[in-house]
Amino acid sequence: MSVMPKTHAAVDIVRGLLQDDGLRDQFLPPLTEFEAQTVERLLPAVWESAQKWLARFPSLNADTLLPLSIFRILQMPRLPVADIATAVEWELWNLAMDDLFDEGAIEFGQLRSIAEECRTIAVIRPGGESASTPFAEALIAIKNSLAQHPSFVDLQPTFAVGLVRLLDGFFYTHQVRASGRVAAPHTTNIDQYLYYGSWTLQHPFLWSLPLYDDDSILPGLGSLTQIAEQCSRVLRLANDLATWPREQCEGTLNAVSIEAAQLAQLGRSGAHCHEAALRRVRGRLADERLALRALEDTVRTKSGVERGFLRLTEMGSGMYERQDLRNWAHLLTFGSPPDAACD
User: How far apart are CA 245 and CA 260, in angstroms?
Assistant: First the structure.
């Protein structure tokens, strides 16, 4: 685990990003002046809150805290700091769960047990939860923060759906790895992969809904869910474009590796195959972004939840297109990405 920078160091890093045009473009998509000022203003309090939360769960990795904090501030710039911090915390928890499934350090039966405990936590009445692992304890803390909002009573089923889909997405990737299809990705269908893979990115949208306490959310929940699903497809493809060099080394399923394997079956090879695969995934990403734009006017909430969904997707995909988020700690320390070569 890396040592998390102190608040003043994190603020200095962000100020450096915002004030240096070259560095800013290397890390961040374009921001409005309001957004840049909001990030700089809110980051210290969000960071302090995250530090306190992480101290309770030291097994969670803080390497991505900075980009995740920027994501959430830009998604919900007018919400209280405590609510933005809750959103940052669930992302740190999500990445810890992702690592748990990807690293293969524990047996399938243990993964299933942890997942079942988390599912129970998601559906049970607030206050009745119990935990036997740090992952479950952290999920209870997240749920408790959400349950402080009156709207959680009506939106707990949506929270539970987000959790179940997240876990099912993790299990899909885990089972593909266990079956050997990661080693032979030409046997994996890209549409099936995108369907399940996007489930691991729906929770940032669905779990944010209670934070707004907006009575216009429930009538528009169907449309908001549809937008969230499309946003997650965009983010999945953008994420895979950023992470495929690392995930290729790790043996993790990725849209680029699937497309490259399909092209290899058609006789392509080497660098030309990977270049063509990248073009295919970028083309699919462009198509999914067009599909998202078609949904933009399907719902209007009082608090602009849907605008936050769209800005998070635009910002997140723009960041992914620049860097793998897990490279930020190395980039900010050494000024260059880590070596992507496989050991």
Answer: 12
